[in-house]
Design a protein that fits this description.
- By secondary structure, this protein is mainly α.
- The protein contains one helix and no strands.
């Protein structure tokens, strides 16, 4: 009977280690994927900011052109 208890304890420890190892690997992978998504989001935000600045510059340029056209007319 003692051997059955020892075998069941060893099996339990093996299962516990495998479970926690899987959880650790999964959390590492999840953290990596989140980091990659954050990098993509940063690139996207940079494009949006540049687009907004260009739109503002276009508005200013269009106003200047309109003013010049009114003066020359």
């Amino acid at each position: 009977m003692a051997t059955q208890i020892i075998i069941s304890l060893i099996s339990f420890l093996g299962s516990a280690l495998a479970t926690f190892g899987g959880i650790f690997a999964s959390s590492k992978l999840t953290a990596y994927r989140i980091e990659q998504l954050e990098k993509k989001q940063d690139k996207h935000n940079a494009v949006i900011e540049r687009t907004y600045r260009l739109e503002e510059q276009m508005k200013v340029a269009n106003h200047r052109i309109d003013d010049l056209e009114r003066k020359s007319a």
